[in-house]
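Thread: zinc ion complex, take 2
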Amino acid sequence: MRVSLVSVLIVMVLGGCSEGGLAIGPYYIGFAGSSVSPFNGEFAYSHLEDIVALGPRVSGSEAHGKMQGKIRSVLTESGLEIREHKFEASTPLGLKPMTNIIGIVKGTKDGVIVIGNHYDTKYFPDFPFVGANDGGSTTAWMMEMARVLGPTREGYSIWLCWFDGEEAFEEWSAVDGLYGSRELVKELKETGEIDSIKVMINVDMIGDCDLGIQREQGAPPWLTNIIWYKAKELDVGKHFLPHTISIEDDHIPFRKAGIPAINLIDFRYGSGPGAHDRNWHTANDTLERVCADSLQVVGDVVYHVLDDVEAAVESGEGR
Ligand SMILES: [Zn+2]
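Output below.
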């Protein structure tokens, strides 16, 4: 799939390029929207189109099963080892089989950085919620991150975790929501693997065309600073806002287990007064409100902070 998409892009670029085809690489990268990292926001967006076309992806639904299949095939295509963590969640709507999917980028050093997101969409009985931004954007973004990171790397391993059951089936509470991340942390404690997790970076709702990621209360300042500094260095600092919000998400079980964790979320979906309430968890969370450029910005920043985060942990600053 990647290869065919690359060919399509090159044909398009050559078709519209008066300078001829000598500079395919740079033109191609330029077309992709960034020259600062191998992450390609257009590729991520193309995954997102496929994801949204599945319709609502509520845990346990047929579309959710197809979503799992797509994650698996992208990971296989990119050569990552796949680990699946299956469990049964007790929800207000009864027992639900759930699956966390982990793509493992094997590092040369002991230690793991977890990059997490959720791939379920919230259940609404009265309208089809496709979650282009909430659930969709990060699921697609992580698929592109799998391609970019590939099967191995120098340094810590990276676990790309697609959590199941982040959304509450009824009202958000300590027992309704975060099913996948809570269960995974429980499992990692049981196996003792929790000790190898050095840092957890969660992403959620990063596709908003008007991208503005808030600082997160409870995130270690050193980790926030590395990310905000990198954004400034890459000239995308305007998308990383100065104010702080407090939010529960899939990073919380990791934080409770003592792991430095941060949530990168734009919890101000859309622009202008009242936009967030019109878009979040509503029928308006659709493809046209998500932009490849936003996926690109977060892709570039996260790609480039990984070594800095590792260096901070190794130096003892990042604990
Ligand atoms: Zn949600």
